Structures are given as structure tokens and as C-alpha cells.
């Protein structure tokens, strides 16, 4: 398994992209804290300072901050000054990121398919990416290669769908929590592309171009027992299907990275620990009930991510204690994946 290492120009602009992306995220947070407006409203002969804004579900919220006084007048003036400064900073950083994206495209840094990147950004915008939802499947590989400063063979990383791992314990693959129902996930997808709808399979959404989003969750220890909740409550939205072995990924540590999409724009990816991911892929490659072509691809992807961890993500050693969520026999069989060797193709 060989990787193409980024050249010096690409490394430099990758670092610049990460720094500017973080600055943009910070600016968005400050701007969000000053969303809406402060206005005076009369009630029973008195004026009160009221904050009005719309939440992420587009519901109008209002709260009183107190009767009119020198203190609330100063509060209003400070809020409006800070909001104007936040809007100006956000605009400048967006312009900077747009120029950075053009540089990234020219250097060929873009990797993550656009539709997958847009879905991840939408989930991130709703605050569920990495907090109830993780990216699984082939798309996770973009998150593993980005901080390594290499590219995995496109034949292994290219995909036309995204998987979502739904975590019923806690609401593209994703892990969701109790606050994120399948119907709300479908609404998020439809904000990305209005043509997304439930496919014939109950666990799948598809858009007009045939891009698939699979919603899955770990198999219950007692699969015959129904778990109360929103799963499958609406025949028009995807319902999570249980998959054997995914509890290992669900219980693994989280892994977050920033990759670059095909337009040159950064995108945050939250995925399972790459060591557990590679071991799970190796396990899938040995499943007799899995299609032969998929088993071969599983094995190659396991080899690739194992070599990536061993040679580049060296802060993640192959430690049985850190992989205690996996069966011992699986850890033992996966150990060969994480042997360090020269795998680089340098440009």
C-alpha cells in the first residue's frame, strides 16, 4: 500500500487552510451569539428591552432583558456595536476563505466529494456532527488522510454514497442521538438538496442524481427487543437499520479532522478511531455473507488505513488497551495492519 505525500506548497496551503478555517468557525460562533436584534417594546405603560431571534428550527424566540434604564440602554448599544463588528469580521474571513479555496483548487488539494461535504457541513451547522453523529464508511478515509499529509489511492477512497451511524442511546455513514430523529435528519438532507427522499429501503435516502445516504445503528445485544422511540415512526422518512459489528465503532474514541472538498473549501469530518475502523473493515472482509467485491475492497481499505496509522498517525499506537472495545481475537488478527514500513510516493 503506497501513499502520495503532499509537496511543500500543498503542505503550506493546507496549514493556511486549517488556520483560516478555525478563525472562520470562531467568527461564526461570535456572530451566532449576537444573532437577532434588541428592541424596545411597550407593556403596561413601560418600555422593556426585548431580544428577538430565530433558532435553527426557524422558530421565533423572544426574551425580556429588563425595563428601560441607563443600564439596558448601554446593553443595547454594546450589543449592536458587537454585532456590527462580528458581521464585518465574518465577511472578511469568508472573503479570505474564498481566496484560499481558489489556491487549494489550483494546487489540487480538493478531495472530499461536494455532496458529501455539503451534508457534513449541514450536520455541523446543526451541532450534531461529532456530538451524536459520526461519519462512517469510505468517507471517513478523507478524515484519516488529511492530517497525515498524504493521499490514499482514489480507487479506494472514491464513493457515491455516505453512511450515517444512528446512535439510539444518545437523534455521510452517521451516528445520531435521541435529540435527532430520522425525520429531522431527512430535513437536514433536504436543506442540502431538496430532491432527497426516502428510498425503497427503509434505512436509505436518495436524491435525483442517485446519491445514497444510509442511516444505520449498532445491533442490539437483544435484537428481538424493540427499543421505544422515533425509529420508523413515519413511513416517509428513513429509519435506522441495525448492523452487526457497528457497536465496536460506536464505542471507539472519536477522531476529528479537517479535509478539503473538491471546490477547495475545508470541511470538518468526525469519524471513529481509525484503528477501530481498520479492524472493523478487516472483520467485514472475512464475512462469508458479504459480496466478494465488497470483501476485497474492505480488505484493501483496512490495509490502507492500518498503514496510514502506522506510518503517519503515530500518536495512535496499536495499543490493545485503547482498543478494548474490540473482541480480542479481532485485535490479534488486525495487529499485522499496523506494522510500520515505507509506503510513501514523494512528489
Overview of this structure, please?
Strands 6, 7, 8, 9 and 10 form a 5-stranded mixed β-sheet that branches. Strand 2 (37-43) and strand 3 (46-54) form a beta hairpin. The protein has helices at residues 8-33, 70-106, 114-125, 140-145, 154-157, 182-192, 246-250, 274-285, 292-311, 328-334; strands spanning 3-5, 37-43, 46-54, 60-67, 150-151, 161-165, 197-198, 204-206, 212-218, 241-243, 254-260, 266-272, 344-345. The longest helix is centred in the N-terminal third of the chain and has 37 residues, at 70-106. It folds into 2 domains: 7-106; 114-345. The model is unreliable at 168-180 and 221-235 (pLDDT under 50). It is elongated, with a radius of gyration of 23 Å. With 347 residues, it is an alpha/beta fold.
Give helix and strand order, one letter per element, not per position. EHEEEHHHEHEHEEEEHEEHHHE
User: Distance between the terminal alpha carbons, to the nearest Å?
Assistant: 17 Å
Q: What is the number of E strands?
A: 13
Q: What structural class results from the helix and strand content?
A: alpha/beta
Output the radius of gyration.
Answer: 23 Å
From the spread of the alpha carbons, the general shape counts as elongated
Estimate the strand proportion. 15-25%
> What kind of oligomer do you see?
single chain
Mean pLDDT: 85
pLDDT < 50 stretches: 168-180, 221-235
The domain tally reads 2
Keywords:
347 residues, alpha/beta, 2 domains, five-stranded mixed β-sheet, three-stranded mixed β-sheet
Amino acid at each position: 500500500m503506497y501513499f502520495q505525500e503532499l509537496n511543500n506548497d500543498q503542505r503550506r496551503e493546507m496549514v493556511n487552510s486549517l488556520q483560516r478555517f478555525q478563525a472562520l468557525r470562531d467568527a461564526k460562533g461570535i456572530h451566532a451569539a449576537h444573532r437577532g436584534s434588541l428592541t424596545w417594546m411597550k407593556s403596561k405603560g413601560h418600555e422593556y428591552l426585548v431580544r428577538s431571534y430565530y433558532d435553527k428550527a426557524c422558530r421565533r424566540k423572544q426574551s425580556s432583558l429588563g425595563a428601560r434604564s441607563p443600564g439596558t440602554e448601554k446593553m443595547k448599544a454594546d450589543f449592536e456595536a458587537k454585532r456590527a463588528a462580528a458581521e464585518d469580521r465574518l465577511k472578511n474571513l469568508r472573503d479570505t476563505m474564498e481566496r484560499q479555496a481558489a489556491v487549494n483548487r489550483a494546487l489540487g488539494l480538493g478531495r472530499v466529494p461536494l455532496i458529501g461535504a455539503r451534508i457534513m457541513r449541514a450536520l455541523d451547522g446543526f451541532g450534531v456532527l461529532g456530538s451524536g453523529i459520526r461519519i462512517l464508511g469510505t468517507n471517513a478515509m478523507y478524515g484519516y488522510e488529511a492530517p497525515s499529509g498524504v493521499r490514499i489511492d482514489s480507487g479506494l477512497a472514491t464513493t457515491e454514497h455516505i453512511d450515517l451511524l444512528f446512535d439510539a442511546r444518545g437523534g455521510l455513514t452517521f451516528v445520531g442521538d435521541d435529540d435527532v430523529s430520522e425525520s429531522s435528519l431527512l430535513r437536514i438532507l433536504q436543506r442540502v438538496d431538496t430532491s432527497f427522499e426516502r428510498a425503497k429501503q427503509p434505512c436509505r435516502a436518495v436524491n435525483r442524481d442517485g446519491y445514497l445516504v444510509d442511516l444505520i445503528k449498532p445491533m442490539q445485544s437483544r435484537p428481538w427487543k424493540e427499543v421505544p422511540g422515533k425509529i420508523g415512526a413515519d413511513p416517509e422518512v428513513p429509519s435506522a437499520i441495525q448492523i452487526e459489528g457497528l457497536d465496536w465503532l460506536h464505542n471507539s474514541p472519536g477522531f476529528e479532522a479537517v479535509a478539503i472538498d473538491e471546490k477547495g473549501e475545508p470541511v470538518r469530518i468526525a469519524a471513529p478511531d481509525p484503528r477501530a475502523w481498520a479492524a472493523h473493515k478487516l472483520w467485514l472482509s472475512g464475512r462469508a455473507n458479504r459480496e466478494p467485491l465488497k470483501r476485497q475492497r474492505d480488505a484493501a481499505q483496512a490495509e490502507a488505513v492500518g498503514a496510514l496509522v502506522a506510518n503517519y498517525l503515530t500518536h495512535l499506537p496499536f495499543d490493545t488497551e485503547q482498543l478494548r472495545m474490540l473482541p480480542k481475537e479481532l485485535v490479534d488478527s488486525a495487529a499485522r495492519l499496523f506494522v510500520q514500513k515505507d509506503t510513501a510516493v514523494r512528489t
